Amino acid sequence: MEIIPAQLQHLPAILDIYDHARTFMAQAGNPTQWGDGYPQKALLEEDIALGRLWVAKEGETLHCAFVFCPGPEPIYEESAEACWPDDGPYWVIHRIASAGLQKGVGAACIQWCLEQCASLRIDTHPDNLPMQHTLEKCGFCRCGRVYYGDSPRVAFQKYGALYKQN
Description:
Elements lengths: L1 E4 L5 H17 L13 H9 L3 E6 L2 E10 L3 H5 L12 E8 L6 H12 L2 E6 L4 H9 L3 E8 L2 E9 L7
Parallel strand pairs: 4-5
Antiparallel strand pairs: 1-2, 2-3, 3-4, 5-7, 6-7
């Protein structure tokens, strides 16, 4: 599997990946996290233009899409209910979604991200138990909650391969 920056020609397949993810989340008891058609095409186009949307592919088949970008993430900085292990620099994963074609693709993408940085943060909806399970299996620790408006998210962090302890 190869992980590369997403390109505009990938957009139809990326939209299909997010459609699949919304259906999977609804069936797994999490119908509201992305229930309104999130993420919209315009947001994904912006992510591609900014070089922060990545895809995992095998041949011409896309298996996963996710945002991977450097912090700071304003929501993470403003939240009074998150207790991060440190104030050092970090990278963020957002909107990770699998096409459902191959088991373990999401975890493989998270592992790839960990190999690129010293510290990685991610959040997910409290009802997204499959993602919470994946993050815990990957060794992330819970760091409290962050809020997108009135919507709480469970916050996680893990040190990556480039972490240097002082």
